[in-house]
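Worked example 3 (structure in, sequence out).
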């Protein structure tokens, strides 16, 4: 009993002592926190909000993005910005700034008109910002304008050396004044891995009274979704449509054989390949006329979300021609580096030559066919006959449907369902397009070309594979 009581007393004293120690320690901790709290607050804020790297972004002015899109592997924007300083503009750049404040710079093409600057990332649809080269990370896209160092931007003088100091570099956020949709892009498969890049806008709260409309670019590693592909191979014609003919040979059958070998060889490089037809299609269905159906070749390709499409065809000529040769049809307004490489590689590997046809030629074996004034007139007549509103065509719109429709609005796609006989391209108004080339491998009606096509299929295919390997930096 006594022993127990004594023990309890000792226990109570110990508890009281412990509590006093705890109270003192707590007071010290609170004191320290109060003393250094501004720093802690800042650190917590920084850890909690990546927006702290946006504190130098102009609060009152922002650039307007009038359109943004992805064609093939490249992202581009167009926009304008009202200038808030009277100083001369010396440079305009696009900045991707990550959450640590580190920046990647992209040069812009720009023009100052009065107190407005218009800018774009590229004049060509397949150059600009290569999404294949954007490292994994989260970025804010900002406009950086460097103004001249003059009286407007002068802030004072440096006390130590007496030199004038300037505040001539300004950052502006980008706000969406377009009617575009957010973008989802999957990088080309390399070493069995892919990144997913999301591009879109959001409004963020920087400080209590400070919100910004911001363009986000977020790239992370991901598994390629089942329905997403790297490349589409389109073997022209098919079904009951044999395409061009020479004796027992049909274009549809020959280009299908090429497409199947091309698919195998690209898959050996680790690429995921979609065919628009594989020879198992209904032989009573003329593929050329069902191209815009729900399950037609245009929507098959669009659904694949591929970066590149190669459409294979053979040429023909009713009369006698001295030369056959290769023709590669490109979309309008592109950089022709890849097309040239495709042309050179095929010519070398297949031991063939570039077509000498002059019409629509834009380079050695390279062609670009857009609507001309006559085509536009014909379309108006056809629409009146068909009882639907004429399409809004101009001479920048691609003539060949596979090139035009797979690029979405970037290449002038217009099969929007108004002509009921044609169906509808689900992606006619898309701001993400597949970079498409129509390759006329040779003339089926030219015997030398036909012989080469029949006996040297692997040469042609290897040429295409080499160009793609180079384009996507696939080392193997
Ligand atoms: Zn054809």
């Amino acid at each position: 009993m006594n022993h127990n009581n004594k023990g309890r007393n000792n226990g109570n004293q110990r508890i009281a002592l412990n509590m006093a120690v705890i109270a003192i320690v707590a007071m010290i901790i609170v004191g320290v926190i109060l003393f250094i709290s501004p720093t802690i607050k800042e650190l917590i804020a920084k850890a909690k909000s990546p927006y702290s790297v946006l504190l130098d972004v102009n609060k009152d002015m922002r650039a307007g993005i009038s359109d943004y899109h992805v064609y093939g592997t490249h992202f581009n924007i167009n926009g304008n910005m009202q200038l808030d300083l009277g100083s001369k503009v010396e440079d305009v750049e696009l900045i991707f700034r990550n959450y640590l404040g580190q920046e990647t710079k992209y040069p812009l093409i720009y023009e100052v008109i009065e107190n407005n600057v218009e800018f774009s990332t590229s004049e060509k649809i397949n150059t600009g910002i290569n999404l294949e080269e954007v490292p994994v990370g989260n970025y804010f896209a900002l406009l950086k304008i460097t103004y001249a160092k003059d009286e407007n931007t002068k802030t004072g003088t440096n006390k130590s050396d007496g030199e004038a100091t300037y505040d001539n570099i300004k950052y502006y956020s980008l706000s969406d004044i377009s009617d575009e949709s957010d973008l989802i892009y999957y990088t080309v498969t390399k070493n069995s891995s892919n990144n997913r890049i999301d591009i879109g806008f959001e409004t963020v709260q920087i400080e209590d009274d400070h919100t910004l409309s911001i363009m986000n670019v977020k790239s992370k590693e991901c598994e390629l979704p089942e329905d997403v592909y790297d490349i589409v191979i389109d073997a022209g014609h098919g079904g009951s449509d044999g395409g061009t003919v020479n004796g027992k040979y049909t274009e549809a059958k020959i280009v299908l054989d090429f497409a199947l070998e091309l698919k195998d060889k690209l898959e050996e490089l680790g690429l995921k390949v979609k065919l628009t037809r594989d020879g198992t299609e209904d032989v009573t269905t003329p593929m050329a006329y069902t191209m815009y159906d729900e399950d037609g070749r245009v929507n098959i390709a669009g659904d694949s979300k591929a970066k590149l499409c190669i459409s294979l065809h053979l040429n023909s000529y009713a009369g006698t021609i001295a030369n056959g040769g290769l023709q590669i049809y490109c979309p309008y307004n592109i950089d022709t580096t890849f097309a040239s490489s495709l042309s050179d590689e095929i010519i070398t590997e297949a031991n063939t030559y570039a077509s000498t046809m002059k019409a629509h030629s834009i380079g050695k074996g390279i062609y670009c066919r857009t609507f001309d004034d006559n085509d536009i007139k014909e379309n108006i007549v056809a629409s009146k006959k068909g009882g639907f509103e004429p399409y809004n065509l101009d001479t920048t719109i691609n003539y060949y449907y596979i090139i035009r429709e797979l690029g979405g609005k970037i290449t002038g796609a217009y099969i929007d369902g108004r002509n009921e006989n044609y169906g509808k391209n689900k992606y006619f108004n898309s701001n993400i397009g597949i970079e498409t080339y129509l390759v006329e491998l040779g003339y089926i009606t030219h015997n030398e070309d036909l012989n080469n096509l029949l006996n040297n299929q692997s040469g042609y295919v290897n040429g295409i594979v080499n160009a793609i390997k180079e384009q996507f930096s696939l080392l193997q």
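Notes: The CA atoms of residues 72 and 307 lie 4 Å apart. The longest helix spans residues 2-48.
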